[in-house]
Amino acid sequence: MRLKTTCDWCGREFFRDSAQLKGKKHHFCCRQCLASFSSKAKNPDGYASLKDYTNISQHMTKLNEELNPDRMTPETKEKLRESRLGKGRCDGYSKIHGLAAHRVVAEQTLGRPLMPGEVVHHRDGNRYNNSPENLVVFPSQSAHAHHHSELRWFIQQIKEMEAEENAETE
């Protein structure tokens, strides 16, 4: 049965079979209208409503694990890690299977995963020293920043005291 419907892009009325309209959210009179509606440049608001891409990486990871279960075994991950060690510019944090090593060590020390927003701080300032004694977990970035603020104040006080002592001895 032919039904009269309206194009979601240009507003023109056209006829389609009921089977073609069934289960579809949007209807278009031609491919050009479909392409315009699907274009991020021409239709930014409508484009956002087409498909929800949030958490798509989790979906792809799960799909890859189901379709290719033997691909990333722990042994394979370890071989890849060892082959890449020492090859980079070393301007970032060290990684363990793609995760920041200091966060992995902190999680193992705490015996639980880190909560979103928790920040791992290196006491000695050396980002490559990931020994458990050198790591402190702050509940938030603001608590971490507050710690650095107090530390800067403390260092400034020590410098002022040393300057006073030097002035007195001269």
The percent range for strand residues is 5-15%
Radius of gyration in whole Å, from Cα?
29 Å
Q: Could you state the order of secondary-structure elements as H and E?
A: EEHHHHHEEHEEH
Low-confidence stretches: none
Keywords:
two-stranded antiparallel sheet; two-stranded antiparallel ribbon; alpha+beta; 170 residues; single chain; 3 domains; 7 helices
Characterise this structure:
By secondary structure, the chain is an alpha+beta fold. 47% of the residues lie in helices and 13% in strands. The chain contains seven helices and six strands; from the N terminus they run ββαααααββαββα. The chain has a two-stranded antiparallel sheet. The protein starts with a strand and ends with a helix. The relative contact order is 0.05. The mean pLDDT is 87.
What's the structural blueprint in terms of helices and strands?
Blueprint: E1 2-6, E2 13-17, H1 18-21, H2 31-37, H3 44-50, H4 56-67, H5 74-84, E3 95-96, E4 99-100, H6 101-110, E5 119-122, E6 135-138, H7 141-169
Antiparallel strand pairs: 1-2, 3-4, 5-6
Structure at a glance:
Helices cover 47% and strands 13% of the residues.
